[in-house]
Specification:
Layout: E1 12-14, E2 26-34, H1 41-51, E3 61-64, E4 70-84, E5 87-97, H2 105-112, E6 117-123, H3 129-146, E7 150-155, H4 165-172, E8 188-189, H5 198-215
């Protein structure tokens, strides 16, 4: 993880138009939602698309199987304005989901190509422990090699038998602390169907990505 992040005084501001004649200060990022099959990656995507409807540059699209499972990816482009040290930047942010289906494993490396930040979406279902572990190990092998910022989300917290957060942390080998030194949470508990904590998780990762960009 990144050890520090921009000051809380730096506020995220959004707008509905971009002047593409002024390319200075325009930066593009790619954020990928990764996790086991049916953990809620596409549901996160849909909630963010609804939330940022007024700053989307495209309508977005989803490529699914006949039974509604993600075949290739969901993707949309959003535009955010951000002021850093009195200079205004426009961040064009592509949000992409990565299929969790094992039979389409080979497609994931292409979706991850060029990623600047990743949200790992874990499943609170006790029966999904092994799938969470396997998917997270695969992700860690990628982000450690590329040194990509990431955050971990534990979705479906509304399940009656949802796995305890500390049990989830232990299964993934994560610290039992609540937050890291950079202020991001070790785990973001979410209910993507209701949009609970989906925006907070995304915003914190975007801050990490921005800080990583200006620190490199």
């Amino acid at each position: 993880m990144i050890d520090s992040k921009p000051s809380e005084k730096d506020q995220l501001i959004v707008k509905d138009k971009i002047d593409f004649s002024e390319t200075e200060g325009v930066v593009q990022f790619k954020i990928v939602f990764w996790g086991p099959g049916e953990s809620g990656k596409t549901t996160n995507f849909l909630r963010l698309r609804e939330k940022f409807n007024f700053v989307k540059l495209t309508n977005g699209y989803s490529i699914e199987t006949t039974d509604g499972r993600t075949l290739w990816q969901d993707t949309i482009f959003l535009s955010f304005d951000f002021k850093i040290k009195r200079m205004q930047y426009t961040f064009i942010t592509q949000i992409v989901t990565c299929t969790g289906q094992e039979r389409f494993l080979s497609t994931r490396e292409y979706v991850l190509d060029g990623a600047d930040g990743i949200v790992f979406v874990g499943d609170s279902n006790p029966n999904a422990v092994e799938q969470n572990k396997r998917s997270f190990r695969e992700l860690i092998g990628f982000v450690n090699l590329k040194k990509i910022p990431y955050v971990v989300q534990l979705n479906k917290r509304d399940l009656d038998d949802a796995i305890p957060i500390n049990s989830f942390k232990k299964s993934l080998g994560l610290p039992l602390d609540e937050i890291y030194s950079d202020g991001t949470y070790v785990i973001y508990p979410t209910i993507a169907l209701e949009g609970k904590n989906v925006l907070k998780c995304f915003q914190d990762l975007l801050m990490l990505v921005i800080y990583d960009y200006f620190s490199s």
